[in-house]
Design a protein that fits this description.
Structural class: alpha/beta
Radius of gyration: 31 Å
Number of domains: 5
Largest sheet: 8 strands, mixed
Shape: globular
Helix content: 40-55%
Number of strands: 15
CATH topology of the largest domain: Aminopeptidase
CATH class of the largest domain: Alpha Beta
CATH architecture of the largest domain: 3-Layer(aba) Sandwich
């Protein structure tokens, strides 16, 4: 039988694997024993310590001993029982509802290996108390992650008898030297490398990659002795590695890969502005500190941090450009996708802000955005009302019950491993609520009273209730899911004019709200059950989503944290016109369309429509040019149908290539004057409707 690619990959891994003799001997004795001494092995250690490499070695040893091996990386699944069971069933080719029976019927002993276990923290209780105890005795489980197990494992007398823990440390000096020899590091430099890395596996791997990329490379390292040496090592090594990559294109590909959450070929094409990137993608895939997974390529966390830090220091302009290209790609994906794919694009967009010192503490960055919160079920309501009662009081729960009944379609429910509500988000549509409805809720009434008049087709919404069932309004994975959906609301809601965001802890949330440009709105503050809530808000007519994303990008790529960007001197304020005032301004703009400088002072120059197209920093001349182009584009749109083409022709000969007077325009069109006037009036009306749709859409 011909060899498979997997066989070559496994052989290469074995050739580079060294050390861990005590851990391998310990595991070998366990799989060779007639009755294994443990049921679950928990292996843990810091990032880059070699957990995944040792896990693969354990899998190889078990296969050679006749075991069936099942491996999956927990980063690729959402921490839900049904998702975990479905993933395992897929690997086993077994029915999801009959995994235990299927494994019990296997003639082989089986080894289930779960890597990156820390990402399954929401499933820890379920795995410990429900799933693992149901597995048959012919199954051994290895859980590999960064953190020690929760105290609940150690406190359970039953688990104490069938659980072993295996903490990993750096390689011993003799193991380090053997690894360096196998990777062809010159003997004359091995001691310096050993002194510098202290046997840290990822650091050793990076050094080996540097030598492999450039023959004859030399290093002189200073000794590091403090306890926080790992991050300094990785940063220094990444800088050295970047100097030895094959060429500028490879360096750019690596920097792009470090900036985004996950790298795929389409992402890389966009960020490098190059459609021929297959070779670069394959080169990235071969690097030891880049991990290929079903979703794409992920740099090791320490390497990612070091690459981004180096890029921002060395070439801030290129960092800004890569950030812009990534933002453009994800914004486009958000606009053309729905459901889970759109949510992943949203999380990828938010991920671009992970390095900002203001934003970083407020999001659980390990969340991958791979599970959609559920819609409200009738059975959820008692759980949600209990949450509100516990955190906000009985009066607040009464208000929540009212809105849950009035607007159930506006409720999102993240769920626990058992399928129960982990929290919820109720986005109140203030525009759809009646005056009587709003009067039942001091929050809705205060928000409505603080609104400027809404125009036809515009909406105002309030994130009336948002909470984690346990953490309430503190940072958590559930809150991160909620925030992703709030961002989705901002970017995809048609006609959105205002949003209101109430917080129970004003001091805690103020830095984030200021960073994302939510204004403090004390006039909308309210109290329920004697508990005050501070309200932040945003006028999306004054700062539309595209402009808002641009502002956040400026703050992210800034060299220091910023909570607000003051307007530049002389920058005009955005004008929000009523529909009649907008129509009057369009008529004035048509009248002055061909007169140089006559558009000065037209309020449309500072409308959302023109500002979004020309940019907030555009000069008055640029705004006038933009307005002229928008009017012409709106008129051009009337040419699609024969009926409306008549209106376009009347506009054309009156305003764009005007005749000497309206009588001559009618003659050019070969129309009676009354018919020409009717077409012109209707043309102005239709052109205004098109522009108004762009203004409020």
């Amino acid at each position: 039988m011909p060899s498979r690619l997997a066989d070559y990959l496994n052989a290469a891994r074995r050739a580079h694997f060294v050390g861990r003799d005590s851990e391998r001997n310990f595991f070998r004795s366990a799989i060779q024993a007639e009755s294994p001494p443990f049921f679950v092995l928990h292996m843990y250690g810091p990032g880059g310590i070699g957990k995944s490499t040792l896990l693969r070695e354990f899998g190889r040893m078990a296969e050679e001993a006749g075991w069936a091996v099942i491996y999956f990386d927990a980063r690729n699944i959402e921490p839900l029982p049904e998702t975990f069971r479905a993933t395992l069933a897929r690997y086993l080719d077994a029915p999801a509802g009959g995994i235990e029976e299927f494994m019990a019927a296997s003639p082989k002993r089986q080894l289930l290996m779960v890597d990156t276990y820390e990402t399954l923290a929401p499933l820890d209780d379920w795995l410990r108390d429900h799933f693992l105890p149901q597995l048959p005795e012919n199954v051994m489980v290895i859980l590999s992650g960064r953190n020690p197990l929760s105290p609940a494992w150690r406190a359970d007398a039953g688990w104490q008898t069938v659980l072993e823990t295996l903490p990993l440390r750096n390689l011993a000096p003799d193991e380090t030297r053997e690894y360096l020899s196998r990777r062809n590091i010159p003997e004359s430099q091995q001691q310096a490398v050993m002194t510098f890395t202290h046997g840290h596996p990822l650091a050793l791997s990076l050094i080996a990659e540097t030598f492999a990329q450039r023959e004859g490379a030399e290093f002189q390292f200073e000794e590091k002795s403090d306890d926080a040496f790992r991050r300094d090592i990785i940063q220094t090594l990444v800088k050295n590695f970047l100097q030895k990559v094959p060429g500028p294109a490879h360096r750019a590909a690596l920097e792009a890969c470090a900036l985004v959450r996950v790298t795929t070929e389409p992402v890389l094409c966009e960020m490098l502005a190059n459609s021929e990137i297959n070779d670069l993608f394959e080169w990235l895939n071969e690097l030891s500190f880049i991990e290929p997974r079903p979703g794409g390529l992920f740099p090791h966390d320490l390497a990612r941090d070091a690459l981004v830090a180096d890029l921002r220091w060395r070439n801030p302009d290129w960092y800004i450009e890569l950030h812009r290209r990534a933002r453009h790609y994800y914004t486009y994906r958000i606009s053309v996708t729905t459901g889970l794919e759109q949510q992943r694009a949203l999380f990828d967009l938010v991920f671009l802000h992970r390095d900002n010192p203001v934003m970083r503490p407020f999001i659980e960055w390990q969340m991958g955005g791979s599970s959609l919160p559920d819609r409200l079920r009738d059975s959820d309501i008692p759980h949600l009302l209990e949450m509100v009662t516990r955190h906000e009081g009985a009066d607040s729960a009464r208000i929540a019950a009212f809105w849950l009944g009035k607007q159930p379609e506006n409720v999102l429910v993240p769920r626990t491993a058992e399928g129960l509500p982990a929290g919820f988000l109720l986005t109140l549509d203030l525009t759809a609520a009646t005056a009587q409805d709003r009067a039942t809720d001091p929050a809705a009434q205060a928000a409505w009273n603080s609104l400027k008049p809404l125009r036809s087709g515009e909406r105002a919404t309030m994130f009336r209730f948002w909470m984690d069932g346990e953490a309430y309004q503190s940072v958590s994975a559930t809150q991160s899911v909620i925030f992703i959906h709030i961002a989705r609301h901002y970017l995809t809601t048609q006609g959105l004019a205002y949003t209101f965001f109430p917080c129970a802890d004003e001091a805690f949330w103020t830095p984030l709200c200021m960073y994302i440009n939510l204004s403090r709105m004390p006039q909308a503050d309210f109290s329920v059950d004697g508990r005050p809530f501070a309200v932040f808000g945003h006028d999306w007519r004054a700062e539309p989503p595209a402009q808002w994303l641009g502002l956040l990008a400026e703050r992210e790529v800034a060299t220091s944290s910023q909570t607000a960007t003051p307007p530049k001197p002389g920058m005009p304020a955005l004008v929000v016109l009523s529909e009649p005032d907008f129509a009057a301004a369009v008529r004035d703009a048509l009248r002055d369309h061909k007169r140089a400088g006559a558009l000065t002072g037209n309020p449309l120059l500072n409308s959302r429509l023109v500002t979004q197209k020309a940019g907030t920093n555009a000069s008055e001349t640029q705004r006038m040019s933009t307005l002229q182009k928008l009017i012409e584009d709106a008129a051009e749109s009337l040419k699609v149908t024969p009926k409306e083409n008549r209106y376009y022709r009347a506009l054309y000969h009156t305003y764009f290539q005007p005749a000497a007077n309206q009588e001559q325009a009618a003659e050019l069109l070969d129309l009676p004057f009354s018919t020409y006037r009717r077409h012109l009036v209707r043309g102005i009306e239709r052109l205004t409707e098109v522009l108004w749709g762009w203004e409020v859409g």
